[in-house]
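Today's session is about reading a structure prediction critically. Students often jump straight to the picture, but the first step is always the sequence itself: look for stretches that repeat, for charged clusters, for runs of hydrophobic residues. Only then move on to the predicted structure, which in these notes is written as discrete structure tokens rather than atom positions. Here is the chain we will use throughout the hour.
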Amino acid sequence: MTDGILVTHEGPIATVVLSRPAKLNALTRAMWRALGTAIDALSADDAVRCIIVRGAGERSFSPGNDIGEFATERANREQAIAYGHDMHATAAALERCRHPLVAQIHGICVGGGLEIAALCDLRICGQGSRFGAPIRNLGLVMAHAEMAPLVRLVGEAVALEILLEGRILDAREAFDRGLVTRVVPDDQVAAEARASAQRIADGAPLVARWHKRFARRLRDPAPLTDAEYLEAFDCFDTEDFREGSAAFLARRTPDFKGR
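Below is the predicted structure for this chain, in token form.
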């Protein structure tokens, strides 16, 4: 445990827990910093194949930043800029993470919690989960770096609906608007997230990393360079490709090594 962030490992699957259950996992500045540090460390670890991000307990993923900390950490513009730097550095760490990120969402996923979930590759929630960013009620804006993942995920119109109305969406509305990937009964969220992570971890890890990088690159409308175009064929020279092909022909489960 480091500043409210707990990291555990189960084989190639790592779990990062926003662990402040007494406050429903409300985020402090120290937690933002520790989350970024944890994600960067896991991203650099080739033994990791998938990362689950979740809140402690089953009442809340996170309701966002701890408002009680505002008086000391975000009381004015100068403090808010410094606080924002830490938030945005962590958002960048989530964005550049090489391994697939699965958000396991129980209960409340609001404000900064929603921003973290939006930076994950898959979002699995329960039927009782709730989503939103009612920061207009605090007189606060969602800065560019925080809004960008949300706009990419659901589009400008839905992002503005969430921010302008300040309404809390239920799980079905969140799914319909593209905020979440999958909705399951509340008592099955952990099992479904773990099963999803296992399916990812069972695949070729180099392929998962390439697919993440390609998807990010495709956000840029600029034409691919020759090197970028050719990178899509590098997989054919990997041990994992040879193992996968041989396993398919032999009708056995492949044993990928990430080489």
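Discussion point for the tutorial: The longest helix spans residues 77-96.
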